[in-house]
Design a protein that fits this description.
Distance between the termini: 40 Å
Strand content: under 5%
Oligomer: single chain
Number of strands: 0
Number of helices: 3
Largest sheet: none
Structural class: mainly alpha
Radius of gyration: 21 Å
Order of helices and strands: HHH
Length: about 100
């Protein structure tokens, strides 16, 4: 994933509030509740706006829930490692590696 793929949604991911103080819900129950909240919201928006593009709901769903946030952050992190950290680290240690190989 790359930032350019987030066009139109400005890189945002909506999550539901997870108030945990005094709550006995498991993480799985929180996830289920969160998906239900957003599913209902998408259904409501779709019914109120029949001219929405056919793939709008799926694109919108890709930008909701903690799970999607984690997936997107992981993608950005992996991209950073591959594009920046690894090349810079290899460049920094190349002279030392060459010295060791002699």
């Amino acid at each position: 994933m790359h930032f350019s793929e987030l066009a139109g949604l400005a890189g945002c991911v909506a999550i539901a509030n997870r108030k945990t103080e005094g709550c006995t819900l498991s993480l799985e129950q929180f996830d289920s509740n969160e998906r239900g909240i957003f599913r209902d919201m998408i259904t409501q928006v779709s019914s109120e706006s029949p001219t929405m593009p056919a793939d709008f709901n799926a694109k919108l769903a890709d930008h909701m829930t903690i799970q999607q946030l984690i997936i997107k952050l992981d993608g950005l992190y992996q991209d950073f490692i591959a594009q920046h950290w690894t090349p810079q680290t290899l460049q920094k240690f190349a002279p030392k590696i060459a010295t060791i190989q002699l």
